[in-house]
Amino acid sequence: MQIDYKKIGLMVGLEIHRQLDTKHKLFCDCPTEAREEGREIIFTRWLREAQSELGEVDPAAIFEAKKRKKIVYHGDDKSICLVEMDEEPPHDLNREAVEIALTISLLLNSKPVDEIHVMRKIVIDGSNTTGFQRTCIVALGGWIEVGGKKIPIQTICLEEDAAKILEQKRGEVHYDLRRLGIPLIEVSTSPAIESPREAYEVAYAIGRLLRATGRVKRGIGTIRQDLNVSIREGALVEIKGVQELELIPKVVELEVVRQLHLLKIKEELIRRGVIEEEIRVQPIVDVTDIFLNTNSKILKKKLNEGCRVLALKLPKFGGLVGLEAAPGIRLGAEFAGRARAWTEVEGIFHTDELPGYGITIEEVSRLYEKLNASSNDAVIIIADEESRAIEALEYVRERAIEALRGVPSETRAARPDGTTVYMRPRPGAARMYPETDLPPYPVDLEYLERLRKNLPPTLDEVAKKLAEKYNLSTQIINELIDMERVELFERIVNEMKVQPTVVASILTEHLKSLKRDGVKIEELRDEHFIEFFRLVSEGVIAKEAAYDVLKWFSENPSKSILEAIEALKLKPVNISEIEEKISQLIQLNREVVSKNPAKAVSIIMGELMKEYRGKIDGAKLYQMISSKVYGQKS
Ligand SMILES: [Zn+2]
């Protein structure tokens, strides 16, 4: 679909989060990366009350508190201490983290504050043991230039990372505390971005600037991008947790498609004369008897568990619930998302998708009959414990009423395919209050001046320098920078004396073609490359084996290079055996050798490569053959 983003008034703001590569966590001395796992720690808590210390109630907090979840925390005594467990007050703000945050602020032309005040932001999904996340504004304002346009920066904050969710089931959630407290930088832009492509470019530019400090963590899980997306007639929607940069344009585009779709539905509902009151008065009806002998697997399962099937008619919604603007984008998904997020119901259907899923046409017509509905209407059915199903249908009712108004302003979570799902209401202003356990942290001017004088070079400058040093193009160096493999590249070249062009091409071209072939290159760690290049430099294996070895490592990330050699039958080559074979081939091709030695070399090379491809370096083999052929001739 071709969308005129200017015309619909698209506005996007970004919040870029990135872990800082400090030695210690933000409020305690635990390492941000433990070298070993210590003694296991497991404990259980229950969700806290939703009220802030100012006495106001936050909508996002009510959402979580309603669920009354049991929370199980996991950690080990080498990675967490009493601070993460909320048994001890926070220690002083980590100086190293403040320094990195201030450096980033200066690079973004932002104005550091005089005093850093730590605040508490209510987060009670259990991802923080305290019931809040500590965050502090480090600098205000600023800008970054992208494609000739100045994108304003609003704030730069330093935050503690939350615990990582391990497992979630009904009434219970498990978190890993090892990530809790790792310093995060949060850069927020103003909503000045006007197209999906520009959102990508700004995120890329900010990412490069953060990496220029050389003091941010890299790899999966260290970066998170949140997007604030709105269109003129729509609403401001927060989209959380986009992990991959490449996904940003798609998420923005699909959010625009979703909002346009909801606006179209609103128009159609108004045209059909639907009014709020009509939706409000619909009763919730028990329709369990219709499905007693159903073939629907999920309904059968729920009925066996003693659940009921309840139904709600949405008058004149027929055809609109299942109407799809793009895969996964339809009103039915909005209903299900809302009901699931609040009540964790499982079996939910609407008549636009029925008959189907094992539900027969007879069952559907009995359903219509019982609810006094026709195909002009939509009926939503939910199978669950009675009280839970009633509650879930009330959320569907609320969402249906919101459909009359257009796009609800809410917080959604990004999925790996670029679509989003309802997460919770947007948090209110009552969400922040001061951290009373910590004094303000003064930022003195002399210190700032020192930082300003020692700002790191930009990555463009770094790329230029490296290109000269290793005699490579800046393009290939930039690729290494973007793939975050520059350090690895330099380490291999300097420690193992492998040709820079060889290392660079394996770390860029080879990896790209592996990725194209569906290999999970994100499984590859630095050690895999280091082990491989070490054996290449020792002449044990040929660089030509890179593709196979790296592919194998991606499938067996915890194995060693020796196991790779074994599995791939990359037995170290026996040089004297090859020399023997060259002599035999020279004998066989005596005539060509004497008449046209160059041709003889290429014949013998072709013959031997059949056997030794990937096992010996091609250039080395060529050299061995040449010296023997020409030696023979003279
Ligand atoms: Zn700790």
Brief characterization of the structure:
It contains 22 helices and 22 strands.
Extract low-pLDDT stretches: none
Distance between the termini: 71 Å
Instruction: Please describe the biggest sheet, giving its number of strands, its sense, and whether it closes into a barrel.
Output: 12 strands, mixed
Class based on secondary structure composition and strand pairing: alpha+beta
What is the count of helical runs? 22
Q: Let me know the number of strands.
A: 22
Name every ligand kind in the structure. zinc ion
Radius of gyration: 31 Å
Which range does the strand content fall in?
15-25%
Q: What portion of residues is helical?
A: 40-55%
Assembly status = single chain
Task: Describe what you observe in this structure.
This protein has 634 residues and is of the alpha+beta class. The protein folds into four domains: 5-237, no CATH class; 275-403, Gyrase A, domain 2, CATH 3.30.1360.30; 459-567, no CATH class; 575-633. The chain has 22 helices and 22 strands. The strands form four sheets. Strands 1, 4, 6, 7, 8, 9, 12, 13, 14, 19, 20 and 21 form a twelve-stranded mixed β-sheet that branches. A four-stranded mixed β-sheet has the order 2-3-11-10, with no helix packed on it. A hairpin with a 6-residue loop joins β13 and β14. α15 (500-516) packs across α17 (546-555) and α21 (597-612) packs antiparallel against α22. It is globular. The N and C termini lie far apart (71 Å). The model has no long low-confidence stretch (mean pLDDT 92). The protein binds zinc ion. The site of zinc ion has 8 residues, from loops.
